Amino acid sequence: MAKVLIIGSGGREHALGWKLAQSEQVSEVLFAAGNGGTMGGKLRNLPLDGTKAIAQEEIARCIREEGIDLTLVGPEVPLMAGLVDFLHAQGIKRVFGPVQAAAALEGDKFFSFELMKEAGIPQAEGVCCRSQAEAEAAIRTHTTAGGIVLKVRGLAAGKGVVVCDDVTEAMAALPRLIASFGSDILVSERLSGPEFSIFGVCDGKRVIPWEMSFQDHKTLLDGDRGPNTGGMGAFGPSPVASLAMVHRIHQEVMTPVVEAFARRGIPYTGFLYAGMMLTPEGPKALEFNVRFGDPECQPAMVMLESDLYTLLDAAVEGRLVQAPMAFRAGAACCVVLAAQGYPEEVRNGQAIEGIDKAEDISGVTVFHAGTRREGEGFVTHGGRVLGVTGYAAAGLVQARQLAYDACAQIRTEEGLVYRRDIASDERLAASIGHNDHTGRKKNA
Ligand code: AMP
Ligand code: GLY
Questions:
Q1: Whether residue 289 has its Cβ less than 6 Å from ligand 2
Q2: What beta strand segments (E) does 140-184 contain?
Q3: Greatest CA separation found in the chain?
Q4: Most buried of 43, 229, 312, 352, CB within 10 angstroms?
Q5: Ligand 2 centroid to residue 11 C-alpha, Å
Q6: Predicted structure pTM score
Q7: Which CATH code of 3.30.1490.20, 2.60.40.420, 1.10.10.10, 3.50.50.60 fits the domain covering 125-189?
């Protein structure tokens, strides 16, 4: 029986561990550091925040001492910091997650733009600019009736992309972006169309598709208003992208990425995440991430029927074969309950009531993110607190209803914040309505 170590502490990591614990091949799932939900049964937390660069030595020691068979790195930060490279150098090879050079696909938008260009992946036209003057010239040249998009080169926690209607707006946004994030700016053509997310599992040489599309909801408030967050909800499969579309993206986008890395002598192992837009000219890639999405992972794990350990084991051994994955019929929908104040400052330590009642609803799984165990109960410990996930064989409408029925059972004294329109008919219609062929995104 295998012992698995998961690096990370969010809802994504709880969902991955929950799924791995269902495998008969897995004896124990350890987390560095995990959260209030990643304890009990086969799950155990280590007193070690594995996302911190200074923790690398300790992670390697713990992998040896605990006899870990497979390590999975959940979030992007340790991947970009080179955790996988470090473990490889220590002789620890069974790690699911890309090496630092591949993690640049998420951490460096210039690198990602150039790699897509080299690999012939459909994307927005763009110019990598290294000074304000260059960016201003690119804005003047490339702004169309649809507008223009400015992207900072590095990670910016959802604050690094500005979608502008015209030159004036872009010229006003540019100095603010440069002041916060530096003068490397990707100036891009503004595309229009519904967005969806596609995932792949990579073994260093090839990628197999997660045969289901997802959509997430990035802003805090209903109607896609308010500040950007890590994600307030997600569901799959998305009606925007059929299974045939998933296969098309696999061929036109995912496979060329992994092959481009292979040509550079960089084996890509881990999850690969493509943020896509269905434009009037066909699907185009907006961005890549080098990990599973959070909260997309929560519905993804609920939908996966086959054994996740078998899949990860094959991936770290470099022997993935086509179609080892089976999915349940129907759909899953995750609604994130966040603390008051998120995505800014939040107050921790609020007692959470009703998780058990929510989980008593058949088809509901409550994944923990920002929670901590205190005595017999749970208290809040972070911005995104829980990912309440409904599954229904009948489909998305029913899955969403279950998630909301469950959310209604959960409370804290100051109250948790959540969107009421995750996977709603209005949001689905609005996302499809974006594809209005005028090149304009309708802002709610
Ligand atoms: P990214 O981090 O690159 O995925 O960008 C964040 C969000 O900005 C996306 O989810 C889109 O809504 C929007 N966006 C990014 N690039 C473009 C583009 N070229 N055209 C229109 N919208 C975009
Ligand atoms: N849900 C968006 C992300 O994980 O980046």
A1: yes
A2: 148-152, 161-164
A3: 62
A4: 312
A5: 11
A6: 0.96
A7: 3.30.1490.20
